[in-house]
């Protein structure tokens, strides 16, 4: 299935944070502002094309009301970044590219853990596996080291960071950055928070791989520093519903669920509602920009 990837114009996150290459970043911030005013978030890239945050939704739940039950300003727990992180340099909201799966729209709000105030102009990155458990830029590694039906979730090579089921860490989140092994960049992207501290992504419901429950990785950058690395989870009843559908149903033998995952915490659960032909998940992440542990 082909998805709109006009938003995939490469804009370096580091460049954007430094205030350079402001054409793409300015359009992005304008799109966030439009969404805040109740319209559909639309961004014009430097190619002149437009793209919508949720092009196939038939209903649009109110984003503001979603956050009423989407967490508090209690400091969000740091977790390992896992073995498959690298800076994909893609500032975009629709990160699906050619990946099939149940549409998932994510709304993430970033707050200061001490003041509870929204943090605007923070960069939020997300990345996760596809319906078959594969990560872009690391298909061979995340597929177990080979093709032909190799088991998913294989052990990464030396230097690729902690294994997927690694213990939660502090500081930068644990694990080193991966050198991409291929040129795929699906299900990876970054957005800049608006004045309410909110970003939105359109993706697919993640699949699973051995040793881990279903999850989305998230990293928050404030003032060009990795301030928070964490993971987002889904309710198991919804996982079961989604995984009964194609293409997920083709990937059988799931071995780890929320209650058996050593990173999962109830505070990581997205607040999820139906959204047309897919789902919308919301969560508040509370970061600590001054790094005093509060």
TrEMBL record:
Gene3D superfamilies: Aromatic compound dioxygenase (2.60.130.10). One of its GO terms (molecular function) is oxidoreductase activity, acting on single donors with incorporation of molecular oxygen, incorporation of two atoms of oxygen. Residues 143-183 are annotated as: Disordered. It comes from the Bacteria. PANTHER family: INTRADIOL RING-CLEAVAGE DIOXYGENASES DOMAIN-CONTAINING PROTEIN-RELATED (PTHR34315:SF1), PTHR34315. The keyword Oxidoreductase applies. InterPro entries: Intradiol_dOase_core, TAT_signal. This is Protocatechuate dioxygenase. Residues 143-152, 167-177 have a biased composition (Gly residues). Keywords: Dioxygenase, Oxidoreductase.
